Amino acid sequence: MSEEPKNPETNLEDGKQSDEPVTFTDEQQAKIDELIGQQHAKWSKKLDQQQADFKQQLADTQKQAEERAKMTAEQKAEADRKQREAEITKQNQELATQIQEYKTKSMLLDKGISPDMLPLVMGADEDSTSDNLGLLQKYVDSQVQAATEKLLAGKQAVTTGSNNTSPLEAGTNNPWSKDGWNLTKQTEIYNTDKEQAQKLIASAQPISQSFYVGKQ
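RESULT FIELD:
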């Protein structure tokens, strides 16, 4: 009697791990390897920086200890005072940075921009951040406008076509025709392609007494 094949789903329901290996396509595996490599490089860089910082802190501590051993009581007191002031200044700077980051994230979210853009726009103060954000917004708006114009141009090309005969000429969609009369559409076509507009006008033969876009 032949052995029945194992059902991976049944094994999962029984709490047993499936023996079938998980496979990926070459493209998926390459992407996974790339992400792992990027993450590993990031961790290695961070670890190297931490080790370098630790060595520098150790050297600074040893140097301070040697210098402190040579100080008088008054010099030690003065050194301690300066150190406390430096620590307070550092804490205030860190707090100011955190507040500025919070304000910048709020400004980005208010404008519908991802907080990931924070490093690009955050300045030393709220005014400089606002200026940077304004520049970013202008750039985004210009890119959106360019993409929109390109999309509309593509749609216009599909609608009007490049042949002498256009679908608009034969149907009631011709904005110069009696049934499809539309001044807004007339303006849009006339501003985009005057040659095509003249063809549509000639095809529709609008009433000479009425006003229409492109009328001589």
